[in-house]
Specification:
Length: 258
């Protein structure tokens, strides 16, 4: 019970933070807008969640093994590597997803809803990327030290920021503003998680690798803009395939720097 109770509270708090934006849209917009937003939210999160979780599945086993063997410094170093790998995977993927959002919308939504979908996906994707860094790097420190209850603090802080901002800015003018509140909650959660986890274990940031990853991300953005310009008269599916290719090459190139 001592181990499970914080997990139950954490799950409930996470659900609150995840769905607060949808509750706002439900009360301030119509059901069709909520449906489009929910679809954009699912896509913006799922693509990046799957990538980050793939690295964490193997990486967490490795870091736990090192920690249990008493190699605390090596465990910290591995989390630093995992941070770089997750950013390397998410940065080009996020750019490709954002640049392809209008084509995805054109393929699956009527024109009246396509713009809403395309505008929301990049915002939600940013929040998802921040949450993945929090969940699969800094929150792992809490798992190592069996401090599951500490995970509640970042999540509750994020929920408080999102709810507080909602009350301050309500009523919202567009659904984009609701998505921004989700990102605000993600920033708050990540910041608190970094600060709190550092009291147990410091995770070094590999700035040199991140600089290289950022440079590759910039190249991906330039290439994506070029593709959208060069293939402006082509079918949306053609541009979408090109964006997926750019994202894949960007991920492989970024991971080579880690």
């Amino acid at each position: 019970l001592q181990f499970a109770a914080p997990i139950v509270l954490l799950t409930a708090s996470t659900q609150l933070l995840t769905h607060i934006d949808k509750l706002i849209i439900k009360t301030q917009f119509d059901a069709s807008t909520l449906g489009v937003y929910a679809a954009a939210f699912a896509l913006g999160r799922t693509v990046l969640d799957v990538l980050a979780n793939g690295f964490n599945t193997d990486g967490f086993v490795k870091v736990v093994q090192l920690f249990k063997e008493g190699h605390v410094n090596k465990a910290s170093e591995w989390l630093s590597v995992q941070l770089a790998m997750i950013v390397a995977a998410l940065d080009p993927s996020y750019i490709a997803l954002s640049m392809a959002s209008h084509d995805i919308a054109a393929l699956f939504f009527p024109q009246g809803y396509a713009n809403t979908f395309a505008d929301v996906v990049p915002i939600i994707g940013l929040g998802a990327a921040l949450f993945n860094v929090k969940n699969f790097v800094f929150d792992n420190v809490f798992h190592l030290y069996l401090k599951n209850s500490w995970q509640l603090v970042p999540v509750l802080a994020g929920a408080a920021v999102a709810i507080g901002a909602t009350l301050y800015f309500s009523p919202l003018g567009t659904v984009n503003e609701s998505a921004v509140l989700y990102v605000a909650g993600a920033v708050a959660s990540l910041t608190i998680s970094i600060w709190l986890s550092s009291r147990l274990m410091r995770v070094r940031v590999a700035w040199k690798s991140l600089a290289g990853i950022s440079a590759i991300g910039g190249l991906c953005l330039f290439a994506s803009l070029g593709v959208n310009w060069a293939l402006a008269q082509s079918l949306p599916l053609t541009r979408l395939c090109a964006q997926v290719l750019i994202g894949g090459l960007g991920v492989c190139s970024s991971l080579a720097l880690v």
